[in-house]
Structures are given as structure tokens and as C-alpha cells.
Write a structure and sequence with these properties.
By secondary structure, the chain is of the alpha/beta class. It contains eleven helices and 17 strands.
């Protein structure tokens, strides 16, 4: 049985159906998931539909589009992503039972439907619900663009970290900054000529590499990047991309769409890295990885033969992750797996407090996985 199901509903055009399917397949492929084996993508409810499989429905609105699957999907609590052409057309393009759900407005520039695919992946638990971005820049060279991206991406529902706007008064600045970097899906690097002349931007870049966070590297006109990371996607800017000291609206829109693609890849790579560390640790101890489960979980066999449901978390884990892990484990032992490096001391204390009160779920630091798995085995 597949782990995930996606249903296309409503009245998608042939172009919409083809674009969404291609992008959805591309994104799930990043997680190592295969169509047919691990997930299905169907037009409506088909005979092989399973009521116990994680499911999302994408409803493409249109004049007169019908929602005949409403009774079944409502009973099962399946999330639905409504897509409409404009905000003013919600009443005309969606059936009454979907009008109370916040719809996604089509973006003509998003021909690959990346925003729609990202929303579907979020509903399936493959991408975090929060879309976190960290802007790294030198104030002397690119403050206007940094602020422009903060405003534009926030308006597109990204949770953007900008040093001048995102740290609370009286908070310890550097600790708050590193904590937010750890929890970011993508680092947007404004690669100006003096970027690596600053100690702080250099450290931000290096720590993003250490955390395996993918980067969208915006290279300033006539500037040759002095350092490269395999985690970076380069976007070279020309003087025509600027209006004064800011980017043109077209470039900002391109950056937002590119972030959707880089974000999916970043989360998939970091998840794969956590799973790889787990695999090495458990195999060194004489156990094995037996497979993958729903919502990115991994099924381990301890050396004793006992099962363990591992729930790798990309970024900073929360009590919601503990809840999710608890729901997945049935009667089996369970553990949330995360990379603790860079997480603030206050949050680590909070997780320790939580661990003491939710004994059914253990915490495993990925960089100490073999050490802690040995303790669970005992």
C-alpha cells in the first residue's frame, strides 16, 4: 500500500494537470519516493483509494466545478487545497463547501505550479508548515534589497528572518540569530563583493553549510563569487535587474518562485542526511533500517529485534513533532531525531523538560545517534 495519496479534483485544465503532476513527481522524487510504489496521484477517487493512507486533495476551481467527493473526504478529514484564478472569483469558482477554506490564488508566473505542489506537500507532512527563510547580507552593500525581500517574501507568506527586524528587544542577539538559522529552510545569500569581508556573514554562510541548509545565492552584477557550496543555487543579477538600489518587481517574483523549488530540495536533503546518519548508527550497532513510514518517519530494527519508529525533524523540533511521533508509533518505541547544533540553550532546556514529561517518546541528537541508540537498546 502506498504511503501517500494525492487527488486532483475540480476542473483542472490539461496544462494545469500536467504541470502539477510533473512538479509533484519531482518534489516527491527528492525524498526518494516513487510513483506507484510509495504514492499515487489520481484524478478523483479511484478504486485503489485507501481510507487509511495520508491523503491531500487539490481542487482546481472553475465556473461550475463540482465537488462530488465532498462527503467521503470530509468524513475522513482529508485536507483540500483550493486553487482559484483570482481572489474575487472564489464565489464563482469554488462550490459552497470549499469557500470557507483559504484558497491559493494562481500566479501566472508560476507555470510549474510550485506553490500548489508545496502546499500539497505541506498537507502531507513532507514539508514544514512554516516556510522559513534567512536573509544573509552586508548592511553596507545590500540593506535596501534585504529589506525589500523581507517585505515581499513576508507578503507571500514566507517566515523571513532579517537581523534588523526579527530579533525581539532584550533577546540575546547572536543566540537568537543562530537559532533562527537552524530553523530556516533556505538561506538567501546576497553575494555582494564584500560579503566574505565580514566576519558575521562569513560565519552565517559557514554555519548554513554545517547545517546542510540549501542556499539561493543572488550574485551582484559584475561580481565573481569567491566561494562555492554544493548546496547553493546561483542566480546571477545584471544591472538591468535593479531599479535604483532595489530589485525590479519581476526579479523579486522570480526569487520567490525559485525559493519554492530550493526549499523542497533543502528539506529533502536535510531529511536524507538525518536518515543516513541513523542508518550508519543502527547498522554499526547490529540493527537495520527496515523501511520508511508515513510523514517522513523511518522504521528501525534494534539489535535486540525490537522496533523503533524514528521521526527525523528538519530544523528545530517542537511539541507538535512529539505529538506526531506519538501518533505514528502505535505500541512501538518511538524517538524524535534532530540536529541539536546551534539550537538555543533556552529551547534545549524546553525540550529536556518536555522529554521528562512525555516519556513515551525519546529524543535522539543525530550527531550522537550511535551513543543514544545504544542506550535505548539497553
Amino acid at each position: 500500500m502506498a504511503l501517500y495519496q494525492c487527488l486532483l479534483l475540480g476542473a483542472p485544465t490539461p496544462e494545469q494537470a500536467a504541470s502539477f503532476s510533473a512538479t509533484f513527481d519531482e518534489c516527491l522524487g527528492l525524498f526518494g519516493l516513487q510513483l506507484g510504489r510509495d504514492y499515487t496521484l489520481d484524478r478523483g477517487i479511484q478504486a485503489h483509494f485507501s481510507e487509511v493512507t495520508a491523503t491531500v486533495a487539490v481542487f482546481f476551481g472553475a465556473e461550475g466545478a463540482e465537488y462530488t467527493e465532498a462527503t467521503v473526504l470530509t468524513r475522513l478529514g482529508v485536507p483540500v487545497v483550493p486553487v482559484v484564478s483570482t481572489a474575487a472569483r472564489v464565489g464563482a469558482e469554488l462550490p459552497p463547501s470549499l469557500r470557507n477554506i483559504n484558497a491559493l490564488i494562481s500566479d501566472p508566473a508560476d507555470s510549474a505550479l510550485r506553490r500548489v505542489a508545496s502546499a500539497a506537500l505541506q498537507c502531507l507532512g513532507l514539508l514544514p508548515a512554516q516556510r522559513r527563510v534567512f536573509v544573509s547580507y552586508r548592511r553596507e552593500e545590500s540593506a535596501d534589497v534585504a529589506l525589500q525581500l523581507f517585505e515581499a517574501l513576508s507578503a507571500r507568506h514566507f517566515d523571513v528572518f532579517l537581523d534588523t527586524h526579527s530579533v525581539s528587544v532584550a533577546a540575546e542577539f547572536q543566540a537568537a540569530l543562530w537559532h533562527r538559522l537552524c530553523d530556516s529552510d533556505v538561506l538567501v545569500m546576497l553575494d555582494t563583493p564584500g560579503y566574505f569581508n565580514s566576519r558575521w556573514t562569513t560565519v552565517e554562510w559557514g554555519r548554513a553549510v554545517a547545517k546542510h541548509i540549501s542556499m539561493l545565492q543572488l550574485v551582484w552584477p559584475d561580481h565573481k563569487p569567491s566561494r562555492h557550496s554544493r548546496l547553493a543555487t546561483l542566480k546571477r543579477l545584471s544591472t538591468d535587474d535593479f531599479v535604483g538600489t532595489r530589485l525590479s518587481a519581476t526579479v523579486v517574483s522570480d526569487v520567490a518562485l525559485e525559493l519554492e523549488r530550493v526549499r523542497s530540495r533543502s528539506v529533502a536533503l536535510r531529511h536524507a542526511n538525518l536518515v543516513g546518519i541513523l542508518r550508519t548508527a543502527i547498522e554499526d550497532l547490529g540493527g537495520a533500517v527496515e523501511g520508511v513510514g508515513m510523514r517522513r518517519s523511518v522504521l528501525l530494527k534494534l539489535p535486540s529485534g525490537n522496533p523503533l519508529v524514528a521521526y527525523p525533524v528538519v530544523g528545530v523540533p517542537t511539541s507538535l513533532d512529539v505529538h506526531e511521533c506519538f501518533n505514528l508509533c502505535d505500541t512501538r518505541a518511538a524517538a524524535v531525531v534532530y540536529d541539536h547544533l546551534g539550537i538555543s540553550d533556552d529551547w534545549v532546556q524546553h525540550m529536556d523538560w518536555l522529554a521528562q514529561r512525555v516519556g513515551a517518546v525519546k529524543w535522539i541528537r543525530s550527531r550522537e545517534a550511535d551513543w543514544q541508540l545504544a542506550d535505548i537498546e539497553l
